[in-house]
Each structure stands twice: as structure tokens, then as C-alpha cells.
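Quick one, probably user error.
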């Protein structure tokens, strides 16, 4: 039984309530079960206390309480991690999801957002001014986890990764202190938080640089039959190396969704698609994507001018809250013929009702930042490929769904050169070492300095020396 659940612990929670502005929820209390749920419905953990913070002062109190009572702590922002590490069993869940404020400085082209904001919150605040920064491709992803891990998005080829647009972070440390981290005040820690995840503290606010984007952009999907899949993937492999920076390219292979732009007879059958996003003049974009429209005959072409906020939420329907998910990922330096063969074999053997193979083409501005400038590293051109199995609750045929992902991941491994930390699943320490490579020594030194007791360990964990 945890400290919080014992009689003395209850008294201590009562004391904490006097200093805490947000809500403190324990098992059995109203809203507790709703608050402990995260995006992945397969996660079912029960914290002893959920601290729903409304400001950095609440975060500080929650950290100090967990430290005082020797309780494990998890940090929930958007709650979108595949492994559900935002919620813990028996400890304190520090919930930032009520902290959603976003402020835009139009003249300076900067955005300040609280740590619990989602990308939809940021996009809705910036787009009235025709501004945006690189964010996730699912609008209900939290800004915190995505930013601290690196930040892939539709705009990364034009404007770099999310961390390349990060100017500063407000951080609550393992000692319960609040510090500002930027290139001037904490240069080494600023290097580490740009890719090193939540290992060094809780980010209560982010400051980003913004760019002129939208409010109308050219974007959308093109789908082909699975028989055209190898041709499409080989064309894209050769096309992206010289593609304009303005063009974001996401690969999407899945059962055809019931979308109005797809023929009804395709519903549920595998399709191979590209989701395109053009961050520039729409006329120039039409010319730039024209070659992609010549790859065989598509079953649907829905690329058109649309609001940027619509493009940012276009893929939300394929990733609803509450569905059960499992994934594993690789970074491929190229879509070699062998890798393409393995991807198509995965499509042919897909088992779950909502399987997906997703890929993000990295290039342009994201590759021109020196590899040692941030903890993210692995900046060369390539593709982050995610193998996703998803199914509705209750759990059915889970072993089959998981085995399909693991088998496909193993088959692709000879073609891979790393993994994006935000896509880690159940690889444990081996996955962390693969994600960070030779940057791990420098990151461990930061961990030793800022969190030697490994208080922040519910993450893609970088253990301190000896820990």
C-alpha cells in the first residue's frame, strides 16, 4: 500500500490540498477513472494520486510531495505515448492536461504555450495570424512529449523539426525548482531537452519561433491500390532526395477508410498512400507535386487547397482515443528494394482490423542542422517507419496483433540504422541506446547533474551513472 493510501498519507494529501490550486484525485473519487485514461486504451494503470495541475506552482508541489513520500511519479501531457508512461501504478500522476494556454506574439513571430497544450491548441492560436511552427501530424498529440523527443511534422522539411524552432523551456527540476532553459542561461541542458525527452524535468511552458504558413495550404492524400505499392514506394524513394523543402511527405498504408473521396468498393481493402503538405505558394506546389500524380492511376486524389488546421487534423480519424494500440519503429536511411519488399509483405500479412504502416520522409531543413546541435541526432535523409497494430476493446487476439508488429519489425531491422525516441515502445534500455547512440554519454552526464536519483524515470529513460 502506498504512502498516499495509508492513514498518514491521507492527512498529507489534505495538507497538500491547502497548497494545490488544481484537483487532487484518489481512487474511487469522482473523475478519477476519466483522468487516468490515456490515448492508448490498452493502458490500465491506477495511480495512488492524480495531481491535475493548473500552473507551474502546482507542478512544483506535486514533485515535492512525490519526493517527500518516495513515490514514483509520471508526467501526463497529451497522454499520447504508445506505452502510456504518462500514467503510473501506485504513485503520483502529475497531470498537465489542464495547462493549455497559448500566447502568440505576432510581431516577434513567437508562440508561448503551456506544457499541457495539444497541437490543435497551438494551431488554432497561431493560424488566425497565418503563423505556424512544426507540430505533430495528429492534432490531439501533446506538445510536451513531441517537442522534447524531437518533433516530426508536416513542416519539418521547410522549417526543421520542432526542436529546431524551440527558443526556451520552463522546467521544473527533480528538486522541485523552476528554471528557464535556453541557449544563454543553460546551454548544455538546452541541448539535452531538445531530443532527450522528459529525463531532466517537467516542461511547464515552451517558447517557439513561428513562420508564415497558411491559413490556406495545399495538401491532402493520394491513394493507390496495394498492387501499385512497390512502384509508389520506389518512386518516392528517388523523388524525395531532390524534392523542394516546401513539400512534406508522409507515407500511409492501411485498410481504406470510409472517406468520401475513396470509392465505396475500396473500403477496408489495403491501400498505399501519400499525405502531402506544401508550405509555400499554392501554384508552385501544384507544379511540384505533379510528378507524384503520374505514378500509376490513383484510386483517389484529394490534394487540394485547404485550411492548415484541417491538414493538421486530417489523420486524427485513424488514431482515436480508446482504441488499443501497439507499435514498433525503425529509421530507414532509404527505402531500399529489400525494405520495400518487407513492407509489402507486412501489408499482405496484416492481422488487426486497424493496422497501419506509416512513414515520415526526413529531408530539407531538418537535415541541415548539425547532428551534434541537439540530442536528437540522426539528421540525414531517410524515413521513420512505424508499424502499428490497433484493435477495438475488449482485448481480442492480442498475441496475433503484437506478433505481426514484432515480426515485421524484425524483418526490417537489417535495413534500419536507428529509431526515433518518441516512437520507442517496449524496447527498454536497448531501444534507448539505439535512439541516442554516441550522444548517450553526454545525456547521462546531464542526468547525473540534474536527476541523479532518476526521479524522472517514467519515460524513454536515460539512467544516471550507476543507476
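Nope, works fine. Designed sequence:
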Amino acid at each position: 500500500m502506498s504512502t498516499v493510501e495509508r492513514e498518514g498519507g491521507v492527512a498529507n494529501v489534505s495538507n497538500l490540498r491547502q497548497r494545490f490550486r488544481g484537483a487532487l484525485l484518489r481512487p474511487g473519487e469522482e473523475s478519477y477513472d476519466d483522468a487516468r485514461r490515456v490515448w492508448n486504451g490498452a493502458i490500465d494503470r491506477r495511480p495512488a494520486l492524480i495531481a491535475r495541475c493548473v500552473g507551474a506552482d502546482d507542478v512544483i508541489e506535486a514533485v515535492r510531495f512525490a519526493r517527500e513520500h518516495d513515490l514514483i511519479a509520471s508526467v501526463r501531457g497529451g497522454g499520447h505515448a504508445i506505452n502510456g508512461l504518462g500514467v503510473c501504478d501506485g504513485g503520483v500522476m502529475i497531470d498537465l492536461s489542464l495547462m493549455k494556454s497559448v500566447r502568440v506574439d505576432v510581431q516577434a513571430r513567437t508562440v508561448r504555450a503551456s506544457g499541457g497544450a495539444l497541437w490543435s491548441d497551438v494551431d488554432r492560436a497561431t493560424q488566425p495570424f497565418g503563423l505556424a511552427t512544426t507540430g505533430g501530424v495528429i492534432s490531439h498529440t501533446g506538445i510536451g512529449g513531441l517537442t522534447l523527443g524531437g518533433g516530426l511534422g508536416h513542416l519539418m522539411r521547410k522549417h526543421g523539426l520542432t526542436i529546431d524552432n524551440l527558443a526556451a523551456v520552463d522546467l521544473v527540476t527533480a528538486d522541485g525548482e523552476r528554471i528557464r532553459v535556453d541557449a544563454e542561461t543553460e546551454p548544455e541542458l538546452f541541448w539535452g531537452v531538445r531530443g532527450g525527452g522528459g529525463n531532466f524535468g517537467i516542461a511547464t511552458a515552451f517558447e517557439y519561433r513561428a513562420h508564415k504558413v497558411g491559413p490556406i495550404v495545399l495538401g491532402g492524400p493520394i491513394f493507390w491500390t496495394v498492387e501499385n505499392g512497390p512502384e509508389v514506394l520506389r518512386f518516392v524513394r528517388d523523388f524525395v532526395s531532390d524534392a523542394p523543402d516546401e513539400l512534406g511527405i508522409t507515407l500511409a498504408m492501411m485498410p481504406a477508410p470510409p472517406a468520401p473521396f475513396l470509392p465505396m468498393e475500396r473500403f477496408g481493402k489495403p491501400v498505399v498512400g501519400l499525405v502531402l503538405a506544401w508550405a509555400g505558394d499554392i501554384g508552385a506546389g501544384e507544379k511540384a507535386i505533379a510528378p507524384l500524380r503520374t505514378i500509376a492511376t490513383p484510386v483517389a486524389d484529394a490534394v487540394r487547397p485547404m485550411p492548415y488546421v484541417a491538414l493538421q487534423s486530417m489523420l486524427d480519424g485513424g488514431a482515436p482515443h480508446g482504441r488499443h494500440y501497439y507499435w514498433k519503429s525503425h529509421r530507414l536511411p532509404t527505402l531500399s528494394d529489400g525494405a520495400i519488399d518487407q513492407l509489402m509483405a507486412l501489408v499482405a500479412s496484416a492481422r488487426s482490423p486497424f493496422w497501419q504502416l506509416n512513414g515520415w520522409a526526413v529531408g530539407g531543413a531538418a537535415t541541415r542542422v548539425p547532428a551534434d546541435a541537439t540530442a536528437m541526432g540522426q539528421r540525414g535523409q531517410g524515413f521513420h517507419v512505424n508499424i502499428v497494430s490497433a484493435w477495438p476493446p475488449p482485448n481480442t487476439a492480442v498475441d496475433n496483433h503484437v506478433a505481426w508488429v514484432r515480426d515485421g519489425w524484425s524483418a526490417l531491422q537489417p535495413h534500419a540504422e536507428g529509431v526515433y525516441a518518441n516512437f520507442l515502445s517496449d524496447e527498454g534500455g536497448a531501444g534507448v541506446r539505439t535512439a541516442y547512440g554516441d550522444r548517450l554519454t553526454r545525456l547521462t552526464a546531464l542526468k547525473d547533474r540534474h536527476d541523479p536519483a532518476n526521479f524522472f524515470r517514467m519515460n524513454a529513460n536515460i539512467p544516471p551513472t550507476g543507476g
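The chain has a mean pLDDT of 95.
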